[in-house]
């Protein structure tokens, strides 16, 4: 246990490598940001996000349309593991896997905290309504022309928990 308190939620008392399969999967907030195509500058290693979604990304639910078979269908779909998460600098700053690997807590809108899978959308964190194109529809367009900065930003409303009415 991280701090010895059994009363704390699992992500506060366990290391990533100690999570059960169900706990591991529940760390995904369903934002879809990791399913956007990215470019890496070969000289600097800098990552550039685009508004081009993976061909399996559902732009409304922000989930994979074929999650169990995603690695077989998409050659560059990375499998997240407790070992590689700390090294994957392209993971969004809001990503539950990244936050826990960095020793930080989940945001108020994360479904594990809020109890509601729609809060990630309400907080403006998800890609819902923001995917400009899906990779299958690129028709020769250059990915470089689709670079956007919003996937690395945290929307202001996601930083503060709404007050109860």
Structure explained in plain terms:
- The protein is α+β, with helices and mostly antiparallel strands.
- It has one domain (15-151).
- 19% of the residues lie in helices and 8% in strands.
- It is built from 7 helices and 3 strands.
- The protein has helices spanning 10-13, 21-26, 70-73, 96-101, 111-114, 119-122, 156-159, and strands spanning 36-40, 47-53, 133-134.
- The protein has a 3-stranded mixed beta sheet with strand order 1-2-3, with no helix packed on it.
- The longest helix is centred in the N-terminal third of the chain and has 6 residues, at 21-26.
- The chain is globular.
- The protein starts with 9 loop residues before the first helix and ends in a 6-residue tail after the last helix.
- It comes from Rhodoplanes elegans.
- Belongs to the UPF0260 family.
- This is UPF0260 protein CH338_27585.
- Pfam families: CxxCxxCC.
Summarize the SSE layout with pairings.
Blueprint: H1 10-13, H2 21-26, E1 36-40, E2 47-53, H3 70-73, H4 96-101, H5 111-114, H6 119-122, E3 133-134, H7 156-159
Pfam families: CxxCxxCC
Protein name: UPF0260 protein CH338_27585
InterPro entries: Puta_zinc/iron-chelating_dom (IPR005358), UCP006173 (IPR008228)
Rg over CA atoms:
16 Å
Helical content stands at: 10-25%
Global mean pLDDT? 92
Shape: globular
Gap from first CA to last CA: 36 Å
Strand content: 5-15%
Which secondary-structure class do the elements indicate?
Answer: alpha+beta
Question: How do the strands of the widest beta sheet line up side by side?
Answer: 1-2-3
How would a textbook summarize the main sheet?
A: 3 strands, mixed
State the order of secondary-structure elements, H for helix, E for strand: HHEEHHHHEH
């Amino acid at each position: 246990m991280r701090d010895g308190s059994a009363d704390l939620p699992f992500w506060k008392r366990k290391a990533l490598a100690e999570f059960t399969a169900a706990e591991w999967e529940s760390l995904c907030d369903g934002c879809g940001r990791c399913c956007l195509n990215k470019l890496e500058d070969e000289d600097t290693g800098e990552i550039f996000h685009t508004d081009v979604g993976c061909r399996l990304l559902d732009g409304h639910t922000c989930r994979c349309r074929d999650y169990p078979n995603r690695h077989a269908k998409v050659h560059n779909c990375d499998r997240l593991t407790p070992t590689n998460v700390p090294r994957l600098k392209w993971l969004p700053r809001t990503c539950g896997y990244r936050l826990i690997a960095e020793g930080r807590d989940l945001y108020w809108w994360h479904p594990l905290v809020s109890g509601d899978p729609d809060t990630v959308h309400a907080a403006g964190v998800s890609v819902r309504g923001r995917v400009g194109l899906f990779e299958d529809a690129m028709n020769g367009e250059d990915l470089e022309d689709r670079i956007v900065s919003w996937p690395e930003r945290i929307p202001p409303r996601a930083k503060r928990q709404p007050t109860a009415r």
